[in-house]
Structure to design on (638 residues):
């Protein structure tokens, strides 16, 4: 059974996060055999779910083997995965390694595990890892990956961020000395057995480990986030030192990287983005996010608390890996996971707290465009994420910050011919014809005297950069597969010539010969000439009768290729934010063409606004509401 049918939203988040990257060399893991074992039942299961996600999302056919001393690791929820074809459960004592081989062995060890600091535990953990290292040797593994954590370093002085080959002091008369001795012993055994059995290894060390809806051994900070979620009082010691935290998503992202890219015989510190903080700074961040719920008291006890250490993770950065999730985002994931797991997770304060208002403005755009189209009998549809939001949420996708509509070419041309006269003075119809500094291939409606600029558009200061709404035309293309492919390639060529000349960049599409000739053409043709060629290319099949296929030559969906023209033949009305808007009757087929299984939400940590807005000034629209008499005006236009 696929994991998205079993796990909750927070569990899916850490399981699937590493499986959702674009242009990542996942194929290097295709058909690999991976064994998983470790000291915490939950952690082993979590790693298995991470591997299942790679198979489900990237179709890698990884053969996943879970090894444990007893069946307690297979809990009630996990039992449903026993029927998966890519999964095998093995008991350690019944394991016959001579009949098997493996590519990767992942051992979770004591990473994030509470230690009772007893001689029995020391013996149990060292004996367990030796057993699994022997199994890895018999399997002739290509790589052994051991998960460790910050406790291996011992005690580190204030202001020092310890690197991989540096260590603090270890006082064996204190509990922290036991922790360091055990963690160092486990890592040393990995190195010893790797040399003995001639297999390479990688060690990943986390900071204080956090994860929403995980079953890690609870720590003080998990208790604190739970208290905030419940609005309860909580005490924590004020620290002079900073402590490094690692969110499970970042650890699994690094685990993926270690399976594919990272150099072997190496140790890597894994720390989440901007999440090395003192307890005082951490509490301040929590208070900024949850001022009504945060009842945390910082107390002084006259000594430094033994919570963790500060870790230097520059080594991973030098190898090209950067954590994605920020401290503020992790705090929100943790707190919300302790409230109502089934409630849809959303980040707070998107677009400086203006996302709700932005969506109201976009709805106003939609209603105004709908009014014009109804009046002039122009057929249009909600498109892209707006259509997806309509079907899945009966409104905007809760974290979406734009709206799109799509038209057939003849309707698009008709709209452009009447829109300027129909729009109020505060709105500007922007095309490459109406704004000489604009070179987008599609039309936008902008609000004058506002600013809504992305990292990309902010550099084009002479162009109208007001709050905007996108309108796309879908054009006819060839009937033959070869003709459609050729049409697509020429469209991409002209678009890249315009885009890269506009932004003073070289064309690099991954093909040296193609890029070389494209850069020559870009230099030869002025941008207006390239736009003329693009315009002719988009409309090349405009007069073709009974065209069987269409494509989105103007927008991002061009990379999805063509789709059957009948998807946009008929219109039906659909509820969207309390109003009726037109969508394709074949919306199911169209959305599957765009998104695949569109019923599945993206994982919580990726529910970010779709545009990186770096300049925003909504002016008089900062408190926007749809005029109460708008519906009447709309009825009059009919």
């Amino acid at each position: 059974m696929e994991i998205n049918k079993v796990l909750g939203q927070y569990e899916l988040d850490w399981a699937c996060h590493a499986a959702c990257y674009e242009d990542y060399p996942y194929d290097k893991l295709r058909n690999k055999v991976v064994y998983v074992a470790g000291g915490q039942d939950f952690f082993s299961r979590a790693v298995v779910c991470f591997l299942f996600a790679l198979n489900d999302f990237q179709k890698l056919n990884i053969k996943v083997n879970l090894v444990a001393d007893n069946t307690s690791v297979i809990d009630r929820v996990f039992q449903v995965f026993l029927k998966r074809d890519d999964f095998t459960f093995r008991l350690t004592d019944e394991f016959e390694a001579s009949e098997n081989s493996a590519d990767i062995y992942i051992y979770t060890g004591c990473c994030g595990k509470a230690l009772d600091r007893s001689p029995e535990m020391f013996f149990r953990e060292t004996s367990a890892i030796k057993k699994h290292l022997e199994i890895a040797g018999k399997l002739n593994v290509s790589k052994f990956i051991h998960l460790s954590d910050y406790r291996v370093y011992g005690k580190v002085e204030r202001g020092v961020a310890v690197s991989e080959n540096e260590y603090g002091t270890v006082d064996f008369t204190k509990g922290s000395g036991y922790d360091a001795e055990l963690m160092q012993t486990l890592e040393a055994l990995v190195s010893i057995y790797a040399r003995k059995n001639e297999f390479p290894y990688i060690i990943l060390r986390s900071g204080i480990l956090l994860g929403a809806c995980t079953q890690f051994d609870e720590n003080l900070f998990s208790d604190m986030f739970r208290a905030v979620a419940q609005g309860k009082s909580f005490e924590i010691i004020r620290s002079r030192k900073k402590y490094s935290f690692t969110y499970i998503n970042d650890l699994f992202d690094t685990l993926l990287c270690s399976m594919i890219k990272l150099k072997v015989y190496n140790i890597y510190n894994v720390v989440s983005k901007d999440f090395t903080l003192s307890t005082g700074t951490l509490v301040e961040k929590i208070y900024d996010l949850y001022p009504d719920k945060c009842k945390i008291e910082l107390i002084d006890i006259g000594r430094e608390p033994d919570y963790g250490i500060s870790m230097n993770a520059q080594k991973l950065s030098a190898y090209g890996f950067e954590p994605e999730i920020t401290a503020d985002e992790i705090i929100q994931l943790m707190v919300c996971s302790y409230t109502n797991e089934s409630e849809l997770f959303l980040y707070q304060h998107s677009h400086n707290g203006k996302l709700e208002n932005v969506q109201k403005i976009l709805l106003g755009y939609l209603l105004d465009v709908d009014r014009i189209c109804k009046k002039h009998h122009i057929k249009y549809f909600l498109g892209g994420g707006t259509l997806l939001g309509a079907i899945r949420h009966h409104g905007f996708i809760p974290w979406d910050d734009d709206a799109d509509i799509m038209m057939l070419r003849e309707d698009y041309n008709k709209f452009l011919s009447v829109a300027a006269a129909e729009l109020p003075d505060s709105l500007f119809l922007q095309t490459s014809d109406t704004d000489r500094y604009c070179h987008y291939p599609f039309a936008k409606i902008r609000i004058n005297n506002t600013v809504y600029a992305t990292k990309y558009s902010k550099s084009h200061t002479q162009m109208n950069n007001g709050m905007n709404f996108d309108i796309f035309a879908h054009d006819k293309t060839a009937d033959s597969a070869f003709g459609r492919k050729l049409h697509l390639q020429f469209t991409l060529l002209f678009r890249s010539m315009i885009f890269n000349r506009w932004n003073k960049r070289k064309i690099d599409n991954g093909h040296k010969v193609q890029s070389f000739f494209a850069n020559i053409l870009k230099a030869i043709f002025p941008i207006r000439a390239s736009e003329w060629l693009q315009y002719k290319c988009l409309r090349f099949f405009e007069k073709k009768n009974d065209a069987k296929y269409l494509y989105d030559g103007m927008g991002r969906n061009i990379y999805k290729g063509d789709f059957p023209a009948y998807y946009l033949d008929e219109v039906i009305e659909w509820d969207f934010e309390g109003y009726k808007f037109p969508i394709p009757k074949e919306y199911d087929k169209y959305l599957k063409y765009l998104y695949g299984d569109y019923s599945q939400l993206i994982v919580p940590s990726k529910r970010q606004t779709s545009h990186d807005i770096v300049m925003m000034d909504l002016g008089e629209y900062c408190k926007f509401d749809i005029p109460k008499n708008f519906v009447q005006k709309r009825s009059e236009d009919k």
In short: Residues 316 and 524 are 43 Å apart (CA to CA). The mean pLDDT is 91. Residues 175-197 form the longest helix (23 residues).
